[in-house]
Specification:
It is built from 11 helices and 10 strands. It is an alpha+beta fold and 338 residues long. The protein folds into 2 domains: 87 residues; 228 residues, BirA Bifunctional Protein, domain 2 (2-Layer Sandwich), CATH 3.30.930.10. The strands form 2 sheets. Strands 1-5-6-10-9-8-7 form a 7-stranded mixed beta sheet, with helices on both faces.
């Protein structure tokens, strides 16, 4: 062994390492040259036969061999790993900052459901839910709706086989709830409803309602008026006023329509309120004793009030939406503004 042999071995090792095609071949070359049983340990063992005068130079040459091979292995390994990474990611530069996707938002209808239920929760109400597919009993009979009422007509209700239908109001949830629980009852029932309406700017065959029910001893119309007045101020602002007009609903007696003062003009009259200063928001009234008798309550022992409002109508008023169909077209550019 002489210096030239070491130099030639170093050059040969570096050439082979540079040509290694994958990590497996690279590891085999590392073992061959600087592994425990590789070339370098054998050359180190041969130092004992080298004349003493030549040992320092030979030792330095072997150290250079080891350093050069070790560095070449590390460099080639890094290059092979980078190539494999590029092959997996294509032209993607993973060192670049990521592009964050736009954060989603709640649909305006869901926003209003959350806002209204939160207000009523703070007033002591709990949320109750029921099925979209209902029976005629819970949708009509249990709510004191007579067989000849217009709402039961085929032109108004989606009927299904077997005496079922798509519920026309979330009041059906109230009947179900009262059947299984004793007073006091204080619930709100948000949900989707269905009616055979011709779709236009203010009507849709499917829509959302939120209904409320409060039953206890000595509940009065004054309780209804004060609670809805508080709800109006929480939802629309402290300056809103409420107005109650007599009406008729099969399941309440007396019944009222509830108007809020127009939030756009403050009651002075504008395009939104059709110059009246008021916007119709909901129907309400005292629960008819026949409804209590139907669900097993004693009409002589308890009284209660009920109310119901359309979520889409609230959304159109609060957000200035001019066409209900915009809420269902799923145009993300339009809905993102709310």
């Amino acid at each position: 062994m002489n210096l030239q042999d070491i130099e030639n071995g170093t050059a040969r090792a570096l050439a082979e390492l540079a040509a290694a095609e994958d990590l497996k071949a690279l590891e085999a070359l590392r073992v061959r040259y600087i592994g425990r049983n590789g070339l370098l340990p054998k050359l180190m063992q041969g130092l004992k036969d080298v004349p003493a005068a030549d040992k320092p130079a030979m030792g330095q040459a072997l150290n250079r061999f080891k350093t050069a091979v070790t560095d070449a292995v590390a460099g080639r390994k890094a290059a092979l790993e980078a190539a494999a990474r590029d092959a997996r990611t294509g032209s993607l530069d993973i060192s670049l900052p990521g592009r964050w996707a736009r954060q989603g938002r709640l649909h305006p209808i869901q926003q209003l459901i959350d806002r209204t239920t939160d207000i009523f929760r703070r007033m002591g109400f709990t949320v109750a839910n029921g099925p979209d597919i209902e029976t005629e009993y819970y949708n009509f009979d249990a709510l004191n709706t007579p067989p000849d009422h217009v709402s039961r007509d085929l032109a108004d209700t989606f009927y299904l086989p077997g005496g079922l239908l798509l519920r026309t109001q979330t009041s059906a949830v109230q009947a179900r709830y009262m059947e299984t629980r004793q007073p006091p009852v204080r619930i709100v029932c948000p949900g989707r409803c269905y009616r055979r309406d011709t779709t236009d700017a203010t009507h849709s065959a499917n829509f959302h309602q939120i209904e409320g029910l409060y039953v206890d001893e000595a509940v009065s119309l004054a309780d209804l008026k004060s609670d809805l007045d508080h709800f109006a101020r929480e939802l629309m602002g402290p300056g809103v006023r409420t107005r109650f007009r007599t009406h008729f609903f099969p399941f309440t007696e007396p019944s009222v329509e509830v108007d809020f003062s127009c939030h756009m003009c403050g009651g002075g009259g504008c395009r939104v309120c059709k110059q009246s200063g008021w916007i119709e928001i909901m129907g309400a009234g005292m629960v008819d004793p026949n409804v209590f008798a139907q669900v097993g309550y004693d009409p002589e022992a308890v009284t209660g009030y009920a109310f119901g409002m359309g979520i889409e109508r609230l959304a159109m008023i609060l957000f200035g939406i001019d066409d209900i169909r915009r809420l269902y077209e799923n145009d993300g550019r339009y809905l993102a503004q709310f």
